[in-house]
Amino acid sequence: MIGRPLNHDHDNGFITTSSDMPALHRPVTGAPDRPLPRLTCDKQFQPSIGSPLDTLHDRDQVETITWITCGVIVWRGHFPHSGPHLRHKVRATPSSHPEPPCGRSEVKGSQAVMAEEKASKRRPRVWYAAVALLVCTAAATAAVLTAGSGGAAAPYDLNGDGTPDLVVGLPGNSVGGHPRAGSVVIANGTSTGPASTSVRIDQDSPGVGGASETDDGFGQSVASCDFDADGYADLAVSSPLEMMGTTEGAGLLSVHYGGSGGIYNGTTETFSEDTADYPGTVGWDEVFAYSLAAGDVDGDGYCDLVVGQPLDLAGGESNAGTIKLMHGTASGLNAADTVQLDQNTPNVPGGPETEDRFGERMAVGDVNGDGIGDLVVATIGEQIPGSSDRGSLHVLYGPIEDAPADSDYVDSGNVTGIGAFAGSALAVGHFNDDAYADVAVGVSDEQVGGKGAAGRLAVLYGGSHGMSANSRVKLFDQDTPGIAGGPETEDYFAASLAGGDFDGDGVDDLVVGMRSEAIGSVKGSGAALVLFGNATGGITTKGAVWVDQDTAGVPGVVSEGDHFGWTVGALDTDGNGRGEPLVGSPGNGAGTVTVLKVRPGTLESAKALAEADLGWTAGSDGDAFGIALPH
């Protein structure tokens, strides 16, 4: 439970309820140009004078890639290597049951604090919480590489039937009278798409660790992989604002193991920095499990879970950030097999500095084509030596056991016109059908055509040397021929990204979210764009499909503050071998998720899902249904 609200904001999310940090899950719902009203509280955090982020450019955040065709700096790192958990049965609640979960009465119409966009050129310094909607990225939270044994299930196939299941986070959901405690809904995949009934879990579900408390944010981030290679995918869920003892904003992670019934009546394990044998120490507002990613990064055939903690203390530096790598085993994940990675770890370039926020965005993919997953990490506060620029990308090459085998470090240090190199969103995929995974980086705060925070997308292509100095880079924004619209202030183009093979040609494609795109004169309505991969050319604008709530065939209507595209995801919801782009609109009342079917140049269908479409009563404003989506 978090008790000291504050309103710092960020390009991709806001924190309005936690101690000294904005609320992870709150989408914009009102007019985006009005300032967020300050909450009342008994204590008020005051940012320290002269904090590192106080010196940023005309926008306070990280301005990322502009044109880098003339050469991104890449520093290759060659550095010298200098208790068991109880498993409980989880008894989730099927939506067909006549009673609410655990016999509770849900609070209807709860007024969660909703963060709003700012029109001012400068935001409060520090963006202290760094909790900016885990989209894996998101947040970063993509399970983009599954290299388990032959019996391992695909991500999100929680019941092992061959069709992935739809998982949606609702971190703003009231549970047991506790606003913004959060929950997760799981709908089985079927041949016609997500089932019309679903299971809902929260921290009051039997077997789930912790208890539902105000502002826990359970369901803020999700990731899936088959951590024990038993043929059933497993699900990791974060509660990054969980109080541990008297420590607010410490964070908690729950891992739900799949089975023939999915995670219903399955087992769960709970981890925090307070868990025996787990690395780290519980700290105030360190938001453990802020970001999640999954894949086999040690090459042993079991999926591993990567847990980001960008506000963690490292090397004595506050908010430097750490990552906890939880190695998969035949018995699943456990604390004893977990190691901490930070910029003091051998073969991780750089060193921990205040406000680096290492681990804020993460993704996994085989960038150098050696058959072992590599970990891509955005460190959006990293100070570039000799420059006022901030932001870097770490590529940590597998096998990663106690430390990565090797690494690359990418920044924009000497590239004309580049403010910084850091991702508000990351996605990894095979966008050009070679043996190497490629990395898409969203730079949603980038100024384009004189428009602040119009946003830009960079796609960096992998190779046998990983992200080398000769890596090919392609850049896209709304000034790029073939992309509809035009750059506007605070569009936040590429604030969310997800990759998948949407047209069934064997090459991955990319869905790009524009959470604050104005449709006509309606500000903050939002849009999404699908860019298709090509076997030889990679991501191109040929056949690009633009989608908003005014597009023919798309349910809903354009409305201010809906933020269609605030999050995006990708999942083969019907098991036909083609992925479907998912578009979250968490500001649309209680929130919606739109499932698209696309081919180059064609929107084949669009189906909007809300809580009521998955077997539950209609949600309440502020539920933030769709903040966390599969990647």
What general form does the structure show?
Answer: globular
Class from helix and strand fractions: mainly beta
- Main sheet: strand order: 3-24-23-22-21
Count of discrete alpha- or pi-helical segments spanning 4 or more residues:
0
* CATH topological fold name of the domain at 425-630: Methylamine Dehydrogenase, Chain H
Instruction: Give the biggest beta sheet.
Output: 5 strands, antiparallel
Oligomer: single chain
Q: Any guess at the CATH architecture of the domain at 425-630?
A: 7 Propeller
Give average pLDDT, whole number: 78
- Unreliable spans: 1-150, 414-418
The CATH class label of the domain at 425-630 is: Mainly Beta
- Going by CATH, what is the homologous superfamily of the domain at 425-630? Integrin alpha, N-terminal
Distance between the termini: 28 Å
Strand content: 25-35%
Radius of gyration: 21 Å
User: Share of helix among residues?
Assistant: under 10%
